[in-house]
């Protein structure tokens, strides 16, 4: 069994180090906010799909949350390390096998838990203008009427206050007026209407 433990430890450890390195360097397809589960509008890359079970899904069991590429590789690595440690200490084959299995199971759950924390901490901070549609806003710079020019509004969205160019189909709207965003014109401009009291 020594050879089996050695192969598992060497192969598993190497792959685990490579995968974690790629993760922290943002090269596993999850960088730049490209995580479909959290952003909702970009496709997941290959490793994100393979590792998707580490993310919390309401209809999945705990078992499938734990099974991921990273956690299985960690289990293989620590299976080998646990077995090698036991055999080096002169333990019986039964104890060595038990130590290997225990190490693998503990590593699997530990890595799954760490990856869950990493996914939870990851946040796409980019602003999406679509979030302001239907939101109340305040006119910051007067808006010319009949879409003859552009003014500015401030609106709260995605836990921040943003300033956007604004147009209106109505008569001009003065600074300080309360309005509602009714249309997204482009990535920086919205159309508004006076807020009805």
Describe the structure in your own words.
This protein is α+β, with helices and mostly antiparallel strands and 197 residues long. It folds into two domains: 2-121, no CATH class; 129-194, Nucleic acid-binding proteins (OB fold (Dihydrolipoamide Acetyltransferase, E2P)). The chain has helices spanning 2-24, 36-39, 46-50, 62-66, 69-88, 93-121; strands at 136-141, 151-157, 160-168, 178-184, 189-194. Strands 1-2-3-5-4 form a five-stranded mixed β-barrel. Strand 2 (151-157) and strand 3 (160-168) form a beta hairpin. Helix 1 (2-24) packs antiparallel against helix 5. The longest helix has 29 residues, at 93-121. The chain is rod-shaped. Residues 29-64 have low confidence and may be disordered.
What topology does this entry show?
Layout: H1 2-24, H2 36-39, H3 46-50, H4 62-66, H5 69-88, H6 93-121, E1 136-141, E2 151-157, E3 160-168, E4 178-184, E5 189-194
Parallel strand pairs: 3-5
Antiparallel strand pairs: 1-2, 1-4, 2-3, 4-5
Helix pairs in contact: 1-5, 5-6
């Amino acid at each position: 069994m020594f050879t089996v433990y050695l192969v598992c430890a060497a192969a598993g450890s190497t792959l685990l180090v490579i995968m974690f390195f790629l993760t922290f360097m943002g090269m596993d397809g999850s960088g730049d906010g490209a995580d479909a589960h959290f952003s909702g509008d970009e496709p997941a890359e290959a490793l994100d799909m393979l590792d998707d079970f580490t993310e919390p899904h309401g209809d999945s069991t705990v078992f499938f949350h734990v099974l991921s590429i990273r956690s299985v590789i960690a289990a293989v690595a620590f299976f080998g390390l646990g077995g090698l440690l036991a055999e080096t200490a002169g333990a019986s084959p039964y104890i060595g096998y038990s130590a290997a299995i225990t190490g693998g199971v503990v590593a699997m759950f530990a890595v799954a838990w760490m990856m869950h924390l990493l996914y939870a901490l990851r946040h796409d901070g980019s602003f999406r203008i679509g979030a302001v549609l239907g939101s109340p806003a305040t006119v910051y710079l007067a808006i010319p009427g009949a879409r003859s020019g552009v003014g500015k509004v401030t609106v709260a969205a995605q836990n921040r206050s943003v300033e956007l160019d604004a147009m209106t189909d109505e008569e001009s709207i003065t600074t300080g007026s309360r309005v509602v965003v009714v249309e997204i014109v482009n990535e920086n401009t919205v159309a508004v209407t006076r807020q009805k009291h």
